[in-house]
Amino acid sequence: SEDPNGSLIVASNTSGLYISKGTIFNNYDETNGITDQKVLSVQQLNDSVLFFLTPDQLYAINIFNEKIYKPVDLSNIKEPQFIDFIISQHKKLFLYTKTNLLYIADLNDPKKVKTVKGIEGTNLNKLYIDRNNRLCLALSKGSYFLNEAETEILKEDLFELRSHVFDIYEDRSGSKYYLT
């Protein structure tokens, strides 16, 4: 990931998170309060905050002062085994687990975390937020979405799309494309 000015480079792998604000990469690992786990996913929220996910915790880092913190209270989640996360433009956080549970939190009120059951017998490949601000899920048994009330995950009505969906893309006109 790189910022528009070209001065921030972020990389992640099995040994942590790496951030470069110039010519040197800093490694953020257990010495910075992060468990020694791989970083699964990274998303920049704004010019100063970067979120990153490990299998058992979501972290945020202030890019300027390098303070690492836990932005959402996930203490009630037993054995989370996170797979992916995404943040909407309205600062709504979506976290998905290997046990097919979707956790939803508003970053403006991070103590309230809501749970929605996922689709049993499937595996998540990718979370995506479409241009209508709807959460879409690329699963091993097709494409699904979170209903507007955020209470249920439903299958997209795509008769020709019954196979494994690896990713979802959307063009400028709003047409969706599915990597199967």
Class inferred from helices and paired strands: mainly beta
> Major sheet: size, sense and barrel closure?
4 strands, antiparallel
Low-confidence stretches: none
Shape: globular
Number of strands: 17
Give the N-terminus to C-terminus distance in angstroms.
Answer: 25 Å
The side-by-side strand order for the widest beta sheet comes to 4-5-6-7
Strand content: over 45%
Average the pLDDT over all residues and give the rounded result: 83
Q: Count of helices?
A: 0
Question: How large is the radius of gyration?
Answer: 17 Å
Q: Level of helix content?
A: under 10%
Order of helices and strands: EEEEEEEEEEEEEEEEE
Q: Care to describe what's here?
A:
The protein is mainly beta. 0% of the residues lie in helices and 48% in strands. The protein has strands at residues 9-13, 16-20, 25-28, 41-44, 49-54, 57-62, 68-69, 82-87, 92-97, 101-106, 109-117, 124-129, 135-139, 142-146, 153-155, 167-170, 176-179. It has a 4-stranded antiparallel β-sheet with strand order 4-5-6-7, with no helix packed on it. It has a 4-stranded antiparallel β-sheet with strand order 8-9-10-11, with no helix packed on it. Strands 12-13-14-15 form a 4-stranded antiparallel β-sheet, with no helix packed on it. β5 (49-54) and β6 form a beta hairpin.
